Amino acid sequence: MEARYSEAVMKLIDNPEELVPAALIAPILGMKAETIIKKVKIGKWDREVCNYIVSGTRVKFFRVDFLRKNGWIN
Prior knowledge:
Number of domains: 1
């Protein structure tokens, strides 16, 4: 039986980018992108959810890492 994922998860799976903005993972986590970014910047983001990089004022998240750690892909 094929797994059924939310539209937001499928959009992330189909995205070819290695790094994605908080706006793409926020709906999956039920959070606002601004909240995720704030947590990263104050050091409260759990890397068990996914890894990220900060470049200047931008925060980007590793798409495949997020999908693997949360069980959507192997």
